[in-house]
Amino acid sequence: MPERRQTLQAITMGCSKNRVDTEHILAQAVSCYDILPEDWNGAADLVLINTCGFIGDAKEESIQMILQAVERKKSGDYGRIAVFGCLSQRYSDEMPELIPEVDAWFGARDFTPLLEYLGVEAPAGFGTRRHVTTPSHYAYLKISEGCDRRCAYCAIPHIRGKHISVPMEELLAEAGLLAAKGVRELIVIAQDTTYYGLDLYGERKLAELLERLSEIDGIEWIRIHYSYPDGFPQDVLDVMSRNPKVCRYMDIPLQHISDKVLDMMHRHVDSAWTRALIQEMRSRVPGVVLRTTMIVGHPGEGKREFRELLDFVREARFERLGAFAYSEEEGTYGAIHYKDTVRAGEKRRRLDELMTLQSGISLEYNRSRIGTEEKVIVDSFSDGVYVCRSEFESPEVDGEILVKYDDIATAGVEPYSLIGEFLKVRITGADEYDLIGEIIEVL
């Protein structure tokens, strides 16, 4: 009788860049373990937790997940617990003492020792294989590691190190393997996607990478996340405007608009540059959807600077906007050189005011789409409703298009078989987050 293979459950906290790291590790571990779903509630021989250490809330969530795993270990659900990622990298000395019940700790880039701990023979390189943990029709493609930017509030360069681009041929090979598994949408990610290629090729190569990814059979949508405004490569806009596979969607975290605050943040752009870039994006890519993030309560943000931010958001009318309150992070320039003078309660008030403003803008944008016909991809199906997205919605961070099952428009098609497929729908309703649609045809 063959020996029972051990089971491994991986839990990923934080950003999609972490998810890619987890998927690379699982692709190697599958030779020795049966991989359990991330939301598995049963027993596991080993649980692997990939942590986030970016800001206070994210650190707290990672710690709580570790503590929950410890309780499940005590109750007998879990055998061993291994933790890696940004939190354990950042607090490599403190965490083993704080939570001694964890069996092994590894840093954010300790992949070889982690694989050795798992009993897996580590490859010469990290490899291009992935064990996809997202729905099988979309996947993230991490094109670089680390960051050379030194924004005053950000701890990522301290945790992840300098910017290192993944060679283009490796990315194309990885994307090809993902397409062969049924992935139809690639979401290109990095700490700063626009920096891609500078270290390897002496120039920014994001536009060329997008073009070459679009040539891969099976890939129908390519989406860009996390683009830095300083030095934004204009040729990316050319590709987006003419290549139908590159979604007219740009995630570009701006963080603020006040010259004073931007200077203190070390963002290397000013208000005039930012406004000109937004205008350029909207004029060169008609219909582009812009997603951004803002920070409220950063040192230097008084009432005047916050009002300037609100006025800018009213003016720019971002289709998507997220925000968070400034968190003083040890080791950053801001923590060393600035005083965090905005009280926590005032930060929350400003955050609420900003997001209330954005809610109205988002509602107006969504309502403007009522009556339009759009191509969407089906993410899931439940209780007679398809959960879909167009090129203007990114998974996990944006709203959804909810489409009721129509047995006439989908005659002869088993409902669940449409997950990962494209539909043409007509938008019939909207709120500030989600849209309602009806099926016109299966594409």
Provide an overview of this structure.
Keywords: 4Fe-4S, Cytoplasm, Iron, Iron-sulfur, Metal-binding, Ribonucleoprotein, Ribosomal protein, S-adenosyl-L-methionine, Transferase. The protein has 443 residues and is α/β, with parallel strands linked by helices. It has 15 helices and 18 strands. The chain has helices at 16-29, 56-74, 86-90, 94-98, 111-118, 156-160, 168-180, 198-201, 206-214, 235-242, 259-265, 271-284, 303-316, 333-337, 344-368; strands spanning 6-12, 33-36, 44-51, 78-85, 104-105, 138-142, 144-145, 164-165, 185-189, 221-224, 246-251, 289-296, 320-325, 373-382, 385-389, 401-404, 422-430, 435-442. Helix 9 (206-214) packs parallel to helix 10 (235-242) and helix 13 (303-316) packs parallel to helix 15 (344-368). The termini are far apart.
